[in-house]
Design brief:
Length: 315
C-alpha cells in the first residue's frame, strides 16, 4: 500500500459567496418558488459555471438581451447591474422585472449620477466589456464618462479638456493595482473628487487580503472561480504578485491536475466571491483522499453583511 504524500493546506477566510451574490441567487430561487419556471435572467446571474448550471437545471433561462425573452415572461437583471436604457426597454415592453444588482454596485451607479448632475466628468477605473462596467457607464451620457483600464489611458488624457473631474471604480478590481491608477490620476488631476468610501467592495478586498496572507507560504495556490469572473481572475493575480509562483484558477474541480500537485508541499485554497462553498468541500474531499493533509486555517476578517431581498419576494 502506497503511503500518502504529506501536504500542508492553507485555508484562509473569508472566501466564497459574498452578500451580493447570495442575494442575487436567492432572488432567482425565490422567484422560481413564487412564479414557477421558466424564469429568465439577463446575462449570467453571477459569473460561476456551477451556479449557472444549477439554476438552469431548476428552470432558469439565461439570455443576452431582452429581445430573447418571450412577451409576458418574467426577467431578472444580474448582480452586475444594467444600464438605464435596459430598464427603460423593459418598461417599454411592459416586462415584469426584478433587479438583482448588488447594492454595492448600485452605490457606484448613484455616485455616477450624482457627479454627472453636479457637472463633473467621471473617470471609471474598470475592465472594458465587463457587465458591471457596461451597466455603470450606461447610467449617464457616454460623453460624460471615460473608462480607465491602465496607466497609458491616464497618460493619454488631455488636462485642458476637463474642468471638474470625479472618480468611481468597478467593485471587483485588484486593490493594489487600482491604488496605483488612483495615485496617477490624482497626480494629473489634483482636484479629483474621490468616493467617500472606496468603491471596491468589502468582499473583494477581504478575499485579496486573505490570499496575500498565505501567498509567501505556498508552493501553489488554487482559486476556485469562473474563468469570466473578474473577482476570481484578480485573486489569481494577487496571489502571484504577493509571492506565490504557481497560481491556478479552477472553474471545475474535475479540471485539477492532481499529478502536478504532487510536486507542491504547501498549498493554498480559496474561492472567489461568486464561487459556492460546495466546490471547496469537493476539492477538500478529493484532496484528503489523495494526500495526507494538515490543514492550517486563518481568519483575516469577519463578514456579517447581508442585503434585503426585494419586497415582492418577501411577501
Amino acid at each position: 500500500m502506497n503511503k500518502k504524500i504529506e501536504k500542508i493546506l492553507y485555508l484562509p477566510n473569508p472566501r466564497g459567496f459574498c452578500a451580493g451574490v447570495e442575494r442575487a441567487i436567492n432572488i432567482v430561487e425565490l422567484s422560481l418558488e413564487k412564479y414557477g419556471p421558466p424564469i429568465y435572467v439577463r446575462h449570467e446571474i453571477v459569473h460561476n459555471p456551477w451556479v449557472v448550471k444549477d439554476l438552469e437545471n431548476k428552470g432558469v433561462i439565461f439570455v443576452d438581451e431582452l429581445n430573447d425573452i418571450p412577451k409576458d415572461a418574467r426577467v431578472i437583471f444580474s448582480a452586475h447591474g444594467v444600464s438605464s436604457s435596459v430598464k427603460e426597454e423593459a418598461k417599454e415592453k411592459k416586462m415584469s422585472y426584478i433587479d438583482a444588482t448588488c447594492p454595492l454596485v448600485l452605490k457606484v451607479h448613484i455616485e455616477a449620477k450624482r457627479h454627472f448632475e453636479n457637472g463633473a466628468h467621471i473617470f471609471l477605473i474598470g475592465h472594458k466589456g465587463h457587465p458591471e462596467v457596461d451597466g455603470t457607464m450606461g447610467q449617464i451620457p457616454s460623453q460624460s464618462i471615460t473608462l480607465i483600464e491602465n496607466i497609458n489611458d491616464i497618460k493619454r488624457l488631455n488636462i485642458s479638456e476637463f474642468n471638474k473631474v470625479a472618480l468611481i471604480t468597478q467593485t471587483t478590481l485588484s486593490v493594489d493595482d487600482t491604488a496605483k491608477l488612483i495615485r496617477a490620476l490624482k497626480k494629473k488631476f489634483p482636484t479629483l473628487i474621490e468616493p467617500p468610501r472606496e468603491d471596491i467592495c468589502y468582499a473583494t478586498t477581504n478575499r485579496q487580503a486573505a490570499v496575500k496572507s498565505i501567498a509567501k507560504k505556498c508552493d501553489a495556490i488554487y482559486v476556485i472561480g469562473g474563468e469570466n469572473s473578474s473577482n476570481s481572475i484578480r485573486l489569481v493575480e494577487v496571489a502571484s504578485q504577493s509571492g506565490c509562483k504557481n497560481t491556478f484558477l479552477i472553474s471545475e474541480i474535475k479540471s485539477i491536475n492532481w499529478d502536478e500537485m504532487k510536486h507542491f508541499k504547501t498549498i493554498g485554497l480559496t474561492a472567489s466571491a461568486s464561487a459556492p462553498e460546495i466546490l471547496v468541500d469537493e476539492f477538500l474531499s478529493l484532496f484528503k483522499n489523495k494526500f495526507q493533509v494538515k490543514i492550517e486555517k486563518s481568519v483575516i476578517a469577519d463578514e456579517n453583511i447581508s442585503f434585503k431581498i426585494p419586497r415582492e419576494l418577501r411577501e
